[in-house]
Write a structure and sequence with these properties.
The chain is an alpha/beta fold. Helix content is 32%, strand content 16%. The chain folds into 2 domains: 7-102 and 294-341, Rossmann fold, CATH 3.40.50; 104-286, NAD(P)-binding Rossmann-like Domain (Rossmann fold). Residues 332-356 have low confidence and may be disordered. It binds 2-keto-D-gluconic acid. The site of 2-keto-D-gluconic acid (8YV) has 12 residues, from loops.
Length: 356
């Protein structure tokens, strides 16, 4: 008797033509429309599944796994995987994979776009024009901060951080400073044009600070009231990693009282809900988690996740050896002192736990 085909759950509509490749080996149960799942719905969907293809909106931990005896692999469509409890997956013998590399440049583009939009008040200017205020124009209308020639601070220096550093250094003549859980090799620092500094120096010296570090309990609210108070007055903050890195109420305060000039946010602690305190401010540019959202990159992410899942389930050219496994050991954290928490591969710039 032929072995039963594995069952795969696909949590959201992705790209059908790519997801359909799984049908060569598996029975595929793919969501036909966008769904917001609660824990019970995820447990129900996983009950008979051997594999799952999920996005960062699906949170999976010990509770959901307890009801999924057949589950062998979860392929996350995203480089960040803080939606998955990796220790619980390891304990349950479930392989988890992510989609690094393919989204690096696209996400770095968005980081830079938010930096420029915030510093040069582009969102605010556009609203002002649409609201019919142009006749009130004066020579000091919408004065912002320069990006070229300023000091760019990058917190988290994985692949995306490095891609942003290159843009700043080579494209905009910026002085680029970074802080990371470990220092890059000198040759990499030279190539990306960035200098390592400690956390406090980064806060104090950056005209524009970009957050590109993984979220974990250790990095929760790493930018809170204390860190904001150490930032250069009039600086810009951009977060393209995970919302939980920033204490959003403290940030809203700093933006409202002028301590920071502007912010650009692509991620939020309670997304898809955005705090009214942020929505009420004019000097913050808000985008709905679109860091990797170009046609080509989102397709590449789904292709990589499909290949990872097929390999983890024992099919295809990489059978048994998915390219991008993540394990609890790789889930490391940056610290404010520059010490390294956990084990990782940051020195090569290949950071499996990077979030954005
Ligand atoms: C998401 C991201 O994957 O890769 C990440 O970590 O945050 C994004 O690219 C994307 O929003 C789809 O879930």
């Amino acid at each position: 008797m032929a072995a039963a085909r594995p069952r795969v759950w696909v949590s959201q509509p992705l790209f059908d033509d790519i997801v359909d490749q799984l049908a060569a080996h598996c029975d595929v149960d793919a969501a036909a429309q966008v769904v917001q799942y609660d824990a019970a719905a995820i447990a129900a969907a996983l009950r008979d599944a051997d594999g799952a293809l999920v996005t960062l909106n699906e949170r999976i931990g010990a509770t959901e796994l307890a009801a999924a005896p057949r589950l062998r692999a979860i392929a996350n469509v995203g480089v960040g995987y803080n939606n998955l409890d990796i220790a619980a997956l390891d304990a349950a013998g479930v392989v988890a994979t992510n989609t690094p590399d393919v989204l690096t440049e696209t996400t770095a583009d968005l980081g830079f776009a938010l930096l420029m939009a915030a510093a040069r008040r582009i969102g605010e200017s556009e609203r002002w024009l649409r609201e019919g205020h142009w006749r009130q124009w004066s020579f000091s209308t919408m004065l912002g901060a320069d990006v070229h020639g300023s000091t760019l601070g990058i917190l988290g220096m994985g692949r995306i951080g490095q891609a942003i550093a290159r843009r700043g250094h080579h494209g905009f003549g910026m002085k680029v400073l970074y802080h990371n859980r470990s220092r890059l090799p000198e040759a990499v620092e030279r190539e990306v044009g960035a200098r390592y500094v400690d956390f406090d120096a980064l806060l104090a010296q950056a005209d524009h600070l970009l957050l590109v570090l993984p979220y974990s309990p250790a990095s929760h609210h790493i930018i809170g009231a204390a860190a904001l108070a150490k930032m250069k007055p009039g600086a810009t903050l951009v977060n393209i990693a995970r919302g939980g890195l920033v204490d959003e109420l403290a940030l809203a305060d700093a933006l409202a009282n002028g301590r920071l000039a502007a912010a650009g946010l692509d991620v939020y602690e309670g997304e898809p809900d955005v705090r009214p305190e942020l929505l009420a401010l004019r000097n913050v540019v808000l985008t709905p988690h679109i860091g990797s959202a170009s046609q080509a990159t989102r397709r590449a992410m789904v292709q990589l996740a499909v290949d990872n899942l097929a390999a983890a389930l024992g099919f295809g050219p990489q059978a048994g050896r998915p390219s991008n496994p993540v394990t609890a050991k790789q889930t490391t954290a940056i610290t404010t002192t520059g010490a390294i928490a956990g084990a990782g591969k940051a020195a090569t710039g290949k950071r499996p736990g990077t979030s954005a």
